Amino acid sequence: MRKKIVAGNWKMNNDLAETELFLEELKKQVFPENVVIMIAPAFTNLNHAFNSLRQHPAEVIAQNMHQSNEGAFTGEISAKMLKSVGANTVILGHSERRAYFNEDGAILSEKVNTALENEMTAIFCVGEELKDRKNGTHFQLIKTQLSEGLFHISNDAWENIIIAYEPVWAIGTGETASPEQAQEMHKFIRKTIAENYSNKIAENVSILYGGSVKPDNASEIFGQPDVDGGLIGGASLQVESFMKIANSF
Ligand code: 13P
Q1: Is the pTM here over 0.85, yes or no?
Q2: What 8-state DSSP symbol labels residue 24?
Q3: Rounded Cα distance, 54 and 71, in Å
Q4: DSSP-assigned letters across all residues of 155-197
């Protein structure tokens, strides 16, 4: 059975003091029982967040990692390092990584392999730019992103994959995909997985929507049959809006 998930991607926000404030507030909340809650603080705050949330159901996850297990890669973070501070899930292929840090399909497929080899779960992000949607090439582009980054993995590895569909034109813009647009793409992603693997695998993978999800639009988006939750940027930075979204199923 696929899980319902609400994951907060904090991006490059919240220093240690701000992270502490958020966590103290988060710990006072009642968590919905049927929803997996995740937060992705900066690398520097992962250890603190993990220790702080030991008795709480929220999972602390990472925003990125390097594809190599170790070595001379100044400034980079390995899977082993993440696991050693309690992060067993990592976001890979976020559109900001693709756009600003030149992460392409080849690098991302290596990152996926490294995550799986290290028994981590990967939240693999795909998403088209506005020009792709205007050209009508958005379905093909998503298919290419999936096949380049993900479609080499084994059937069993899908247990450790979550997909996030984040249309680039909806990220941080206040312009969200309509529930129908989200559903249409999520259904397409599931069909593409079924064609390359099996119906069973496609039905069991959680597909999250990301891009300007807010408390006032979350329930309509999460109400779509192929949307299993959200990857939340801006609205995950305040406990109140994040929890409202987590309670929007
Ligand atoms: P916003 O919710 O700020 O649009 O960001 C979405 C996102 O990129 C999450 O990974």
Answers
A1: yes
A2: H
A3: 30
A4: TGGGGGEEEEE--GGGSSSS-PPPHHHHHHHHHHHHHHHHHHS
Asked about 94 being catalytic, the answer comes back as yes
Ligand 1 pocket test, pick from 100, 129, 171 with the greatest ligand atom count within 8 Å of Cβ, gives 171
Tens-level pLDDT at each residue, the chain (249 residues): 899 999 999 999 999 999 999 999 999 999 999 999 999 999 999 999 999 999 999 999 999 999 999 999 999 999 999 999 999 999 999 999 999 999 999 999 999 999 999 999 999 999 999 999 999 999 999 999 999 999 999 999 999 999 999 999 998 888 888 999 999 999 999 999 999 999 999 999 999 999 999 999 999 999 999 999 999 999 999 999 999 999 999
Q: Which residues contact 204 (CB under 8 A, 6 or more apart)?
A: 1, 2, 158, 159
Which of ligand 1's atoms lies nearest the C-alpha of 96?
Answer: 8
Q: Which two tokens stand for residue 50?
A: 């993990």
